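Support request, please re-run this one:
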Amino acid sequence: MEVAIRAFKATTDPETCLKFIEGHRRLLEAHFGVAKVTSSNTSWMHHENTYVVVAESLDREKIYGGARVQVADGQFPLPIESAIGQYDPTIHQQASPGTSEICGLWNSMEVAGLGIGSIFMARVGVVVAMQLNVEKYFSFVLRLP
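Re-run finished. Output below.
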């Protein structure tokens, strides 16, 4: 199986963003019984400071996994702010401009064992964040059984 890795600004490719969202939702629901997460909100697709990394088929028809890099800009909250802000209000000060979050990370079972899973996608997310001159990043990790 040949897979291409591609990074793009979310606002430039809404079709791929929708495929990303649907693949992530299906994976969480089918394998973990999780039906609602903050990353299922589609408003990030319209955020100028959100970037998407995908592992996809060469013809770009199928997405096998990916991650988002959302850069804090004071206008659009990072997902970690929405997820834990009510429990730890200091997260809002920490999520200042110059900060990003690698979020929405997933990979399908179709590519399990091929070496492009979540660790690789997280590394690509870090590289994208570095290219955006981000000084620090968050990654909220939830290990499901």
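The domain at 3-138 is CATH 3.40.630.30 (Aminopeptidase). Strands lie at 3-9, 50-57, 63-71, 99-107, 136-138.
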